Each structure stands twice: as C-alpha cells, then as structure tokens.
Amino acid sequence: MKVHITTYGCSANQASSEIMIASVKDLGYEFVDEKNAEVVVINTCTVKYTTEQKILHKIEDLGAKGIDVVVTGCMPQVQLETILERNPDAHILGVNSIAKIGQIIKYIENSRNGGSRERVELLSSEPEGFLKTAHSRFNPNIHICQISQGCDYSCAYCIVTIARGKLRSFDADSIVEDIRMAVDEGCREIWLTSQDNGQYGTDRDVLLPELLRRIVAIPGDFKVRVGMMNPFSVTPILDELIDAFKSDKIYKIVHLPIQSASDSVLKKMNRYHSIEETNAIISRLKDAFPNLTLFTDIIVGFPGESDEDFNMTLEWVKTMKPDKVNISRYTPRPLTKALEYRNLDTRIVVERSHKLHKLCDAIKLDSKKKMIGWKGEVFISMDAKVKGVMARTASYKPVVLPEGSVSPGTSCDVEIYDTTAGYFLGRVLV
C-alpha cells in the first residue's frame, strides 16, 4: 500500500511524523507523495483557526476521493465530532499513540482486501514510542527529541493543554540514550522540543538544567537547540539554566513567549507571569550571554486588549528588540476559557497585526545590518533551502555559505558580508 503523512504545526509534531514515517517504511509500505497515496495520515495542529479549517477541508476532500484518512495530532483529542462530521470514515490515532501507526495501516490494508470497513480509533492515556526509536528525518543532520508531553498550566486561549493533557516528563536516561543514538547515526544538531521545555522534570526528580548537563556530556561534536520555554517555568530554574547554557554545545538562543506586554492582558490570559518578571529573565540571560538570540510570541487582539495595552507591547518590542517575533491574531479556540470572552472587532485586530509586523520587520532589518562585517566561528547545520549550506553562529543566527565550501557537522571561521530578510550571507575564512 502507498502511504503519505502530512504534518502541520510544531516541531513535536514533526518528530512524531518522522517516527511514523520510519515505522511505515519498516513495515514494507511505500511512502509516497500525497497525490499518489492510498492512505493519508494527517498529523494535525489546532492552535490557529485558519490551520484548523485548512485541515478539515483536506480531511473532507480526501474522503470524498475514496482515500483512507488517518487523523492524529492534537485535533482528534479535542475536536473528534468536528472531524467525523467532515469525514465519518476517518480513522483516529491518538496524540499519545504514534507507536500504533502500524496497527492502523495494517487494519486499513485488511479492510481493502475484504475485511471489516469499520473505522478505527486507537487511543492511549500515556505517551508511548517517542524515544529510542527509528526516525525517517526530514533533515538527516537534525534530530528532534521530544522531552515531555503536556503542560501543567492553563492559559485562557490555549487548546494544546486540553489536547495533550497534564505534564508527563520522559525519563532522563531514555532521553540521553535517544540523543546518543542520534549522534552515533551522524546527527550533529539536536532540537529539544515539548509544549514547554522549562517545565521538564517538575513531575520527576531531574529538572531541565540537569538534563542539559547530561546531554552535553555525550561524546561527539554536536549542538543543542533548546526549544520554547515559558517565562513562568524559567523563573524557578534560571540560575541553574544559565549555568547549563554556558556549555559550548548549547546554542545561545532562547524562545520566551511574552504574548503581551500588558499585565492586565496577561492576567486575563491566565499567563502566570508579569512583564516585569519576563524582562528580568531576559536581562539576566543577556548579561550572561551578550550575543543572545531572543525569539518571542505575541498574540494581537486578545479580548479586552485596549489601545493602551497594545501600545505597551509596541514599546516593549522597541526596547527589547527581539530577533524574531511570531505574531498571531487571536482567534477563539474550542473548550478554552477565552471562548467566553467578547472578541474585538476584526478590523482592529488586523490593523494592530499589520502595525506590529511593520515594527518587527524594521527592527530585524536594523539588527541584521549591524552584523555585516562580523567574523567568527560557525557550526555547519545542514544544506540550505537556497543554494549553499546553512551555518549557525553560537547564538543560532543563520549564515548561508557557498555550496561545497564546508560540510554539515563541521565548524569553520566566516565573515558575514551581506544579509537578506531571512539569513546572512557569509564567506569562509582560510
């Protein structure tokens, strides 16, 4: 049978798809483009309304064409009825159940050969099959390691916590062994992912800083990118986290979502932190790592956000100058607390989004121009999407080098001579 897996959303979903693709191939099924598939597995994301609608259209369209559809990821956990309204024959694979992808594909194969045509739901209450298993990696040099599932907080707008449940941190020894296996297989960049890396281990006896110390002790030449951490989960571990980040193996990049710079909006969002506390974290990190790269997320137009609230966010961006801002226009999500709130006029949300995008683009361009002429060591991450290879500075800034000049997994000295909107251009120094 010919199978395709389509992936939406976060790096945790990407890691799950890599595991499922490897499992499908190991069972002898052919992995093909979607247009040639008999079975399409849709690994869903339900963070944004626009993404949800795109996915629902695909679920319905594929079913109408007679293609067997398997829906996994976050959506089945919270929007099962909506999925089945669009495609009553869709099979369901729970977000914790990726290890059972083979069972569901075999069932579909049997049904096509005269067996039962009833749809199947395979659900697990606890996550299984995420570590120490084969990956069919989208990039052979990068290993995505999911370190936990779920979240112990309940932000008013967030449906992911409802979909993935309470925090379940994975065993530290298993994580270390998973990464050791990946390094032995030739991976030279490790991405640590979860719904909030800062929460890791608060339900166990090993917290994130200790996990990082164990990971960087693995022999080999590789780099670690620590994924998103919420300010309220970083505060209790900040001293130890800064100490762990001193390792040369850890990129000096922090993804710290603020969502808003207004404390009144943060309170209504149920965010568990103030903007002052967030600023203190950033200040401590930049004192320790002057070239730190800062990513953040901001929701525009949350219910009740006033002009004054929004202007606070604009001023925060001007002051803190984050290197990248993921901007989302607020849309209500099912089952969340914010669904009860009165939404702002869509025109206001769109106007604020455009204004924030314009400011962020200007700050990013100014920051990039200041890097022209920089010289230093970079780590070669992977082949670039454009012609050449993608390198990363110690703070994870992207530098594209000429094709054939260096190989992924190595280091070299470069000079940045120009910049584009998305990356720097560099030349190798001999």
TrEMBL record:
Its catalytic activity? N(6)-L-threonylcarbamoyladenosine(37) in tRNA + (sulfur carrier)-SH + AH2 + 2 S-adenosyl-L-methionine = 2-methylsulfanyl-N(6)-L-threonylcarbamoyladenosine(37) in tRNA + (sulfur carrier)-H + 5'-deoxyadenosine + L-methionine + A + S-adenosyl-L-homocysteine + 2 H(+)
Give start and end of each TRAM domain: 369-430
Q: What is its EC number?
A: 2.8.4.5
Q: Per the entry, which co-factors are needed?
A: [4Fe-4S] cluster
* Function recorded in the entry: Catalyzes the methylthiolation of N6-threonylcarbamoyladenosine (t(6)A), leading to the formation of 2-methylthio-N6-threonylcarbamoyladenosine (ms(2)t(6)A) at position 37 in tRNAs that read codons beginning with adenine.
Which family is this sequence assigned to? Belongs to the methylthiotransferase family. CDKAL1 subfamily.
* Protein name as it appears in the record: tRNA-t(6)A37 methylthiotransferase
Species for this entry: Methanococcoides seepicolus
